[in-house]
Design brief:
The complex is a heterodimer of chains A (331) and B (323). Chain A folds into two domains: 218 residues, 3-Layer(aba) Sandwich (Rossmann fold); 85 residues, no CATH class. With 331 residues, chain A is of the alpha/beta class. Chain A is built from 13 helices and twelve strands. Helices cover 37% and strands 23% of the residues of chain A. In chain A, the strands form two sheets. In chain A, strands 6-7-8-3-9-10-12-11 form an eight-stranded mixed beta sheet, with helices on both faces. In chain B, helix 6 packs parallel to helix 7. Chain B starts with a strand and ends in a 6-residue tail after the last strand. Chain B has an eight-stranded mixed beta sheet, with helices on both faces. A four-stranded antiparallel beta sheet of chain B has the order 2-1-4-5, covered by helices on one side. With 323 residues, chain B is an alpha/beta fold. The chains are: A alpha/beta (331), B alpha/beta (323). At the A-B interface, helix 8, helix 9, helix 10 and helix 11 of A face helix 7, helix 8, helix 9 and helix 10 of B.
Chain lengths: 331, 323
């Protein structure tokens, strides 16, 4: 197989908190190929956003990568100087955050912000960068782009602001866009427009997408692969169609069942008892064991690895068992 | 149909902007935002009504006007057939209670859960001093919190548990109607599921009547018997949930429902029509949705559609092209 565009190997991130050391990411690996769309789902505190931030070197001061490696097109980021690393990331990866009003600079016009990477990083002339900004704004569907170059973020609606944020993410011609809950703050109608835009970009420019969200339905509609995160690790990875049909990990199953679906009304939603473990405290065994419906003694003593099963990867001692039962129940 | 508990006729809430002295002297009209603009509806006993619409369409304003947090600008509100004046009686205030979106901001951080519940129980003289502890414990078990919660403060609870405290506080007054404004929107999906289930259980066990406001259409589908769709301060469609979801009539409802991402395996994102919620204006001419409507005709620019029944059912739509 060819080298994946982005490769993360056994990454660990610790965060210094006033309650003690929090093991936010406990050994994750991830490959993203050129043009692939990948979803990372999980509940608050599972480590989704920290994963993206760790890759981009945007971790807060109290957090640090303790081990692991990150490669872009085979080049390890940790072997580069700080300057070279930032240059490489700026050219290859763009990012869109949840809250566009916080991500955009309130005292600069949107035109200046979109033209910044072409002008500063790529050394284009002012005029050329400005033309590029107009081109990008048109691409992301901002009407009257020429006129809107001179407006400030607060003068735009939420949907348009998020489009500006996407235009900035695209301004360095990245091969991959990280999306950290980009549509969570938007109305469903605007969410559909923004998702459509991201998908069109993927088809047109073959830009890869890593989409972090807690909204399972969004991942179902726009991603090829889904990664379910729990307590700082991936517990299930598979293609979206198979995983949404027959999840192999009990947590993935519970999560999918607890989400209400617009197409079906059910008697009762499935709910997961208990809470996610406190990652500042050491624990033994599977972190999901206290909340799991298929728990056994083995789960309480040994944490399972992410292993292949069917077309997916699952970190559960009982995946095979559980799948057998599921197919029995169906038959 | 069961008894009508609350009914609104022509209910409006207009917000009037502040004006500088100069513009007052020039005799200019102040900026008016008709957040809720002539809304008629009824809530029947034991029903859960789901109120949906985009942000800025007036959902929360309507909820807050019903509770009495905002005085209505115009229109009639009545509870059990009795008109509610500007000044509500204690009994009327008790009858309509609210659960808020943010479980962190809506609880007093310096009051223990026990004190919070005792204060309202004693103020409204619902139980005697001797029995108040007992009633508090009952309420906690009703919402699935441990009895030890009585001595604890809000900060000691997780988001889902705080929302349960909010529900217990609203239920303490034995309201006739519970208004839940985005009550599960700030929660993670597994926690959201448990709160939705709790509300469904309470509805069944206590015969609770509820107005459930949310932008999350999948949750609304799960919880409501009736659905009300709002657009720019007006109700554009209302009817039994199953019927509206199976056969939406208003072009706005169609747009809204088709925009919701689905959980069905293999479902792929469809086309997303352009356009967004236009600015609120003091006066609209014609149908409010015409700027985004894919089927608008010339008469939509001038004719303000009324909310009318279709085919003798309880399904009502405000679109002249449907009737």
């Amino acid at each position: 197989m060819s080298t994946p565009f982005l490769s993360v190997r056994n990454l660990h991130v610790d965060i210094e908190t006033n309650r003690g050391l929090l093991k936010a990411i406990r050994g994750i690996s991830l490959d993203v190929n050129e043009g692939q769309s990948i979803g990372i789902v999980g509940e608050s505190g599972s480590g989704k956003s920290i994963t993206l931030k760790a890759i981009l070197g945007l971790l807060p001061k109290n957090a640090r990568i303790t081990s692991g490696d990150i490669f872009i097109e085979g080049q390890s980021l940790f072997e580069l100087s700080e300057k070279a690393r930032r240059q490489l990331l700026a050219e290859k990866i763009g990012i869109v955050f949840q809250d566009a009003i916080a991500a955009l600079n309130p005292v600069l016009t949107v035109g200046t912000q979109i033209a910044e990477i072409p002008h500063r990083r790529m050394g284009w002339s002012k005029e050329k960068s400005r033309d590029r900004a107009v081109e990008l704004m048109t691409l992301v569907g901002i009407p009257e782009a020429e006129k809107r170059l001179k407006v400030y973020p607060h003068q735009l609606s939420g949907g348009l602001r998020q489009r500006v944020a996407i235009a900035i993410a695209l301004s360095g011609n990245p091969r991959l866009i990280f999306c950290d809950e980009p549509t969570t703050a938007l109305d469903v109608t605007i969410q559909a427009q923004v998702l459509r835009l991201l998908l069109d970009l993927r088809y047109k420019e073959n830009t890869g997408i890593v989409f972090v969200t807690h909204d399972l339905a969004v991942v179902n509609e726009i991603c090829q692969e889904v990664n379910v995160m729990y307590a700082g690790r991936f517990v299930e990875r598979g293609n979206v169609q198979d995983t949404f049909q027959d999840p192999t990990h009990p947590y993935a199953y519970s999560l999918l069942k607890s989400a209400p679906d617009m197409d079906h009304q059910v008697e009762r939603l499935f709910s997961i008892s208990g809470e996610a473990p406190d990652l500042t405290k050491a624990f033994v065994g599977c972190p999901f064991a206290p909340r799991c419906f298929a728990v056994s003694d083995l789960c309480r003593s040994t944490e399972p690895d992410l292993l292949p099963i069917r077309t997916s990867l699952s970190a559960c001692h009982h995946s095979q068992n559980y799948l057998d039962k599921l197919s029995e129940a169906k038959a | 149909m069961s008894e009508v508990i609350l009914s609104a006729t022509g209910l409006s809430k207009h917000f009037v902007g502040r004006q500088s002295l100069v513009s007052k002297l020039r005799g200019k009209e102040p900026l008016t935002i008709p957040a809720v603009d002539g809304v008629d509806f009824e809530i029947h006993a034991g029903e859960t009504i789901g109120l949906v619409g985009e942000s800025g369409c007036g959902k929360s304003t309507l909820g807050r006007t019903l509770v009495g947090l905002y005085p209505a600008t115009a229109g009639e509100l009545s509870l059990y057939g009795e008109s509610i004046g500007q000044e509500r009686t204690l009994e009327q205030r008790r009858s309509v209670q609210m659960i808020f979106q943010d479980p962190f901001a809506s609880l007093n951080p310096r009051m223990s859960v026990g004190d919070m519940l005792k204060e309202i129980l004693l103020f409204h003289k619902l139980v005697s001093k001797e029995k108040v502890d007992e009633r508090c414990k009952e309420l906690l078990s009703l919402v699935g919190l441990p009895l030890s919660a009585l001595q604890s403060f809000p900060r000691q609870f997780s988001g889902g548990q705080r929302q349960r405290i909010g529900i217990a506080r609203a239920l303490a007054l034995e309201p006739k109607i519970l208004i839940a404004d985005e009550a599960v929107s700030a929660l993670d999906v597994s926690v959201q599921a448990s709160i939705v289930n709790l509300l469904v259980d309470l509805k069944r066990d206590l015969g609770l009547t509820m107005l459930f406001i949310s932008h999350n259409i999948a949750v609304i589908r799960q919880i409501s018997d009736q659905i009300v769709v709002m657009y720019l301060g007006r109700i554009v469609e209302t009817g039994p949930t199953e019927q509206v979801f199976a056969d939406p009539q208003h072009p706005y409802t169609k747009l809204l429902l088709s925009s919701v991402p689905k959980m069905t395996p293999g479902s792929k994102l469809g086309e997303a029509p352009d356009g967004e919620l236009p600015k609120m204006q003091a006066h609209f001419q014609g149908c409010r949705f015409q700027s985004r409507c894919p089927i608008a005709v010339e008469s939509c620019l001038t004719l303000d559609p009324e909310l009318l029944q279709i085919r003798g059912s309880h399904h009502r739509v405000a679109c002249q092209l449907v009737h």
